[in-house]
């Protein structure tokens, strides 16, 4: 299995590990440390980028700006768990890279542009995007829900993990 696919699966497994530990209240409660957003809003945001990617693969065009913002991901842990499972299955079925077009909004007046990209490049982007949001989530979990356990590499970039390993030897 391709390293990019394995890394994406690892990220989704970590998110799943978090979701199943939270109570419904912890999952949906607005937290001051997150500017009164919930953990579930960050989780929704990350997962919807994967959804957009796989929907875009079918069309040949990806547009993260046009994601659905599915409220069920913010309110239902079981729905979120099911979506994670579906994304894991889509990753498992991803065998080859393919050329795609990224459509992106680059101005506040609605101007868009397109950029050539590939499935693997967008998966790498989704990994980095997820890690960024997971780092924010990790801060909130440590501050507000100390009883929740996270993997030690949750929300830490792979380059940072590698750097810390090199410093330890």
Provide a descriptive summary of the structure in words:
A 3-stranded mixed sheet has the order 1-2-3. The protein has a single domain (3-168), classed as Four Helix Bundle (Hemerythrin (Met), subunit A), CATH 1.20.120. It starts with a helix and ends with a helix. The longest helix is centred in the last third of the chain and has 26 residues, at 119-144. The protein is mostly helical and 169 residues long. Helix 1 runs parallel beside helix 6 and helix 3 (39-59) packs parallel to helix 5 (77-93). It is built from 7 helices and 3 strands. The mean pLDDT is 95.
Can I get a quick summary?
Helices cover 61% and strands 9% of the residues. With 169 residues, it is mainly alpha-helical.
CATH domain fold name:
Four Helix Bundle (Hemerythrin (Met), subunit A)
Distance between the first and last residues' Cα = 29 Å
Biggest sheet character: 3 strands, mixed
Q: List how many beta strands DSSP finds.
A: 3
General form: globular
Structural class: mainly alpha
In terms of per-residue confidence, which ranges show pLDDT below 50 for 5 or more consecutive residues?
Answer: none
Radius of gyration: 17 Å
Helix share, percent: 55-70%
Beta-strand content bin: 5-15%
Order of helices and strands: HHHEHHEEHH
Give me the side-by-side strand order of the main sheet.
1-2-3
Helix segment count? 7
Task: Give average pLDDT, whole number.
Answer: 95
Which second-level CATH architecture applies?
Answer: Up-down Bundle
Provide the CATH top-level class: Mainly Alpha
Tally of separate domains: 1
């Amino acid at each position: 299995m391709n390293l990019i696919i394995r890394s994406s699966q690892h990220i989704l497994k970590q998110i799943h590990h978090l979701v199943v530990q939270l109570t419904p209240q912890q999952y949906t409660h607005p937290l001051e440390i997150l500017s009164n957003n919930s953990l579930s809003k960050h989780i929704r945001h990350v997962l919807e980028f994967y959804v957009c990617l796989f929907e875009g693969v079918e069309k040949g065009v990806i547009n993260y700006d046009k994601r659905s913002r599915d409220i069920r991901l913010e309110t239902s842990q079981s729905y979120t768990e099911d979506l994670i499972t579906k994304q894991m299955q889509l990753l498992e079925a991803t065998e080859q890279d393919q050329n795609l077009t990224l459509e992106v909004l680059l101005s506040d007046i609605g101007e868009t542009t397109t950029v050539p990209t590939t499935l693997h490049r967008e998966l790498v982007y989704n990994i980095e995007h997820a890690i960024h949001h997971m780092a924010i989530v990790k801060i909130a979990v440590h501050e507000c829900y100390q009883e929740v356990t996270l993997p030690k590499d949750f929300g830490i970039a792979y380059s940072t993990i590698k750097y810390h390993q090199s410093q330890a030897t």
